[in-house]
Amino acid sequence: MTTAAQIRMKRNHLAPGLLFALLVLTSVGLFFVPAFIIRPFRPQTPDALSLAMAVRQQAPLGSLLTAALALLLALFLWRRTSTWKKALLVLGVGLASAAAVMARVDYFEWMFHPVALPGFESAANVKLDPAQMVMAVRFGSDVRAYPIRAMAYHHVVNDIVGGIPIAVTY
Fold first, then answer.
1. What is the pTM of this model?
2. CB atoms within 10 A of CB 63
3. For residue 128, which phi and psi values (nearest 5 degrees)?
4. Alpha helices, DSSP H only, in 41-82?
5. Residue 163: which region, alpha, beta or left (left: phi > 0; alpha: psi -120 to 50)?
6. Does residue 25 carry a pLDDT above 60?
7. Phi and psi of 161, rounded to 5°?
8. Selection from 88, 30, 21 nearest residue 60 by Cα
């Protein structure tokens, strides 16, 4: 039979581990939530974009603090845990640290990088589906069409049309 003191003791041993897990998940979430919400080829609502940008703005400091607290808690728990739990502590600190680093990287540039030198086909050689939408730009006799599907991924194409440098965005 367990006594009330034994139950309290079990809870006291469980709380630091749960706090550690919460800190790691918070650090990872601060990095991952904006990356998950803002991604190509997926519709986003204005509320979701506002949430993603608010989290993205707070992520560098928040992920650093939660990773530091997770490290301190892991050091506190180190002597009290078994070998396999130490592996979980190392994994958790590694994930929280990686999230703190990634929160400072502009990973949106990886997802939405501009096309510096676009390649073009003549209208006769294009293999687009007839229903596919394009953005068209024309200066004088020089005409370009940019498929919306490609623009949704890259968002920016740097080009020269009719001798004029342009940046086409979507």
1. 0.64
2. 25
3. -85, 150
4. 46-77
5. left
6. yes
7. -120, 120
8. 30
What is the chain's alpha carbon radius of gyration, rounded to the nearest angstrom?
25
Structure tokens given for 45: 């609502």
Tokens of 166: 């342009």
Beta strand 134-139 with 164-169 is unpaired
Per the prediction, the chain carries an average pLDDT of 85
DSSP 107: T
Nearest to 38 by CA among 50, 25, 26: 50
Q: What's the confidence (pLDDT) of residue 115?
A: 67
Question: pLDDT, tens digit, for every residue of 98-129?
Answer: 999 999 988 767 666 666 677 777 777 888 88
Q: Where are the domains of the chain?
A: 4-111, 123-169
Nearest to 133 by CA among 114, 152, 161, 118: 152
What does the block give as tokens for 22? 């919460």
Write down the pLDDT at residue 9: 53
138: left (phi over 0), alpha (psi -120 to 50) or beta: beta
Beta carbons of 103 and 55 less than 8 angstroms apart: no
Rounded to whole angstroms, the Cα distance separating 168 from 115 reads: 10
